[in-house]
């Protein structure tokens, strides 16, 4: 692995000038490395962060990737990581014309990293430098503690998807606490979530109601919002008053709570475990926004590499080569999801709709199909609008807001179903739905959605740690419960209980598969089985797991 040569660096700097002229914003300093396939195999398990701490799973992944490469040889064109300065890696056999296209793609990624608000907590730090310090720390502990370091890493990684990402992001984005409307913060951050435990769709409706009040009543919008809120929740004022008297309780995610309150970890001889857990938690927080913006990030980069590369004079003589490479990256599959293709088409669609002024109230009020089709105010603000989307949205928000019926119809998108052919014992794929709401739901189901599991201090009795899964109609993966709870039990130093929801087992009836316990696919129609849930309690004690149904 080595830095690119001066000839290639000159190409990159030329791409930066053109990108800035188009409106992209990013820091001047970037590092570009040439890598071989062997380098890529060793970097991939570390999420391409060269200085990330070593871990036994990384070695397993390297061996797996080597085997896969022997069967299906092929190198990625580029990889870029969000650090200061931004670091990117390039295949060692890319021609100059391909590097031009790739550099535009990478620059758009860097623009996204450094301007999307979901990355706000990563803007002020050089994560690669922090990772080097963390790696040295863990190496030091390994020389002193041996294999126990890997056990702690294993146990911490078992719950690193439960980190309080939104709490960290909230603190980074809101600025000074003195300028915040505390009543509003308490209503949305504490009262609705912790006191009332409302569902996500109800929470989103409250946010929409607040925004509508601000738009309608402007300076009196918040007053109007709370007038209706108090009618719905008359106990709110009493809760808020008590909150102010007692002070805001610090919010801990599970890993923080263990580091702060676990007697076992806080023994003098075990304090080193806190440092290892903090490394794992910090790494997870750094990677959280990338997981939540995959479609947007790749779509934004694909949009710009296409728009910047096509007018570039360095494309001459390689138009066909570009078309072939670009089609392979951004083509829409008939079945499955390509984030590059979907994200790019969404940005083109949003730009077109904003150019025509179709996000205006005037357009929304029109119901005639022909009028809506011909509507065009020629605002010229399409690109300005997509820059705002790039700054403020995540994948989930993008899909819920902009994947409408017009977008689905225009791109001939559909939800694919599959049926088992009992004669040939093969799956047959078919068009299940062309409705936007079904396609949106399919996309939402494919997104990263970690469970929300919190500590219930009031039920922590007799040195038992009581965890509550705030259920969102997505059950926990049973295969992971035992190992994860065993790790938490070790770190806590006592029994651990987990309250969650699971599907009520059903007795196979006529028309049901007696082995799998769900309705067999019908050749003529799709019937979603009715799902019933029950609350259950898992208890891990002395590395033995018990399950009981709650009343």
What general outline do the C-alpha atoms trace?
A: globular
Please work out how many helical segments DSSP would assign: 23
Number of strands: 11
Strand content is 5-15%
- Spatially, the strands of the biggest sheet line up as 7-8-9-10-11
Largest sheet: 5 strands, mixed
* Helix proportion range: 40-55%
Give the SSE layout.
Layout: E1 2-3, H1 6-21, E2 30-35, H2 37-43, H3 56-71, E3 78-81, E4 86-91, H4 96-115, H5 127-145, H6 148-157, H7 165-174, H8 182-195, H9 200-217, H10 221-232, H11 236-246, H12 254-261, H13 272-292, H14 294-309, H15 319-330, H16 339-355, H17 361-364, H18 369-374, H19 382-392, H20 395-402, H21 405-410, E5 415-421, E6 426-433, H22 436-446, E7 453-455, E8 465-469, H23 478-492, E9 496-503, E10 533-541, E11 544-549
Parallel strand pairs: 2-4, 8-9
Antiparallel strand pairs: 1-2, 3-4, 5-6, 7-8, 9-10, 10-11
Detailed description of the structure:
This protein has 551 residues and is α+β, with helices and mostly antiparallel strands. The protein folds into five domains: 2-116 and 293-328, no CATH class; 128-164 and 253-289, no CATH class; 169-246, no CATH class; 354-416, no CATH class; 453-549, no CATH class. The chain is built from 23 helices and eleven strands. It has helices spanning 6-21, 37-43, 56-71, 96-115, 127-145, 148-157, 165-174, 182-195, 200-217, 221-232, 236-246, 254-261, 272-292, 294-309, 319-330, 339-355, 361-364, 369-374, 382-392, 395-402, 405-410, 436-446, 478-492, and strands at residues 2-3, 30-35, 78-81, 86-91, 415-421, 426-433, 453-455, 465-469, 496-503, 533-541, 544-549. The strands form three sheets. A five-stranded mixed β-sheet has the order 7-8-9-10-11, with helices on one face. The protein has a four-stranded mixed β-sheet with strand order 1-2-4-3. β10 and β11 form a beta hairpin. α6 runs parallel beside α13 and α9 (200-217) packs antiparallel against α10 (221-232). The longest helix has 21 residues, at 272-292. It is globular, with a radius of gyration of 26 Å. Mean pLDDT is 87; it is low at 176-180 and 509-525.
């Amino acid at each position: 692995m080595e830095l690119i040569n001066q000839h290639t660096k000159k190409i990159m700097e030329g791409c930066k000038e053109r990108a800035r002229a188009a409106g992209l914003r990013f820091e001047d300093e970037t590092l570009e490395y040439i890598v071989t396939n062997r380098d890529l195999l060793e970097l991939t398990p570390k999420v391409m962060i060269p200085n990330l701490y070593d871990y036994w799973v990384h070695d397993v992944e390297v061996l797996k990737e080597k085997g896969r490469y022997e069967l299906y040889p092929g190198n990625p064109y580029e990889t870029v990581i969000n650090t200061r300065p931004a670091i990117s890696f390039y295949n060692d056999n890319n021609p100059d014309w391909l590097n031009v296209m790739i550099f535009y793609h990478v620059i758009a990624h860097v623009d996204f990293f450094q301007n999307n608000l979901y990355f706000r907590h990563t803007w002020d730090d050089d994560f690669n430098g922090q990772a080097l310090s963390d790696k040295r720390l863990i190496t030091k502990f390994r020389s002193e503690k041996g294999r126990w370091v890997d056990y702690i890493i294993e146990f911490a990684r078992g719950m690193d998807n439960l980190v309080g990402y939104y709490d960290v992001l909230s603190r980074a984005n809101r600025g000074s606490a003195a300028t915040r409307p505390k009543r509003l913060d308490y209503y949305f951050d504490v009262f609705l979530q912790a006191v009332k435990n409302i569902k996500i769709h109800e929470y989103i409706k409250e946010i929409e109601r607040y925004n509508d009040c601000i738009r309608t009543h402007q300076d009196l919008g918040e007053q109007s919002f709370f007038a209706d809120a108090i009618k719905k929740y008359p106990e709110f004022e009493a809760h808020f008053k008590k909150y102010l008297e007692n002070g805001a309780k610090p919010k801990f995610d599970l890993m923080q709570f263990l580091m702060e309150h676990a007697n076992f970890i806080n023994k003098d001889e075990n304090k080193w475990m806190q440092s290892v857990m903090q490394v794992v938690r910090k790494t997870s927080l750094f990677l959280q926004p990338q997981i939540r913006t995959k479609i947007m990030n790749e779509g934004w980069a694909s949009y710009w590499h296409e728009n910047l590369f096509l007018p570039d004079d360095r494309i001459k003589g390689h138009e066909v080569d570009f078309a072939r490479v670009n089609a392979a990256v951004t083509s829409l599959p008939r079945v499955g999801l390509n984030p590059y293709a979907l994200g790019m088409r969404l940005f083109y669609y949003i730009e077109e709709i904003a150019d025509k002024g179709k996000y205006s109230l005037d357009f929304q009020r029109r119901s005639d199909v022909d009028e809506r089709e011909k509507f065009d105010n020629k605002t010229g603000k399409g690109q300005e609008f997509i820059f705002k989307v790039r700054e403020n949205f995540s994948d989930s928000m993008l899909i819920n807001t902009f994947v409408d019926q017009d977008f689905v119809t225009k791109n001939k998108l559909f939800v694919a179903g599959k049926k088992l052919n009992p004669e040939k014992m093969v799956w047959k794929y078919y068009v299940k739905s062309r409705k936007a709401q079904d396609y949106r739901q399919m996309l939402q189901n494919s997104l990263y959605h970690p469970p929300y599991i919190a500590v219930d201090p009031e039920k922590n009795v007799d040195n038992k740690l009581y965890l509550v899964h705030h259920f969102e109609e997505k059950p926990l993966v049973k295969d992971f419960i035992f190992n994860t709870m065993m790790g938490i039990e070790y770190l806590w130093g006592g029994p651990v209980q987990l309250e969650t929801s699971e599907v009520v087992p059903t007795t196979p009836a006529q028309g049901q598969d007696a082995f799998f316990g769900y309705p067999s696919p019908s050749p003529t129609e799709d019937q979603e089985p009715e799902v019933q849930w029950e609350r259950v309690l898992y208890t891990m004690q002395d590395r033995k797991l018990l399950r009981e149904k709650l009343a």
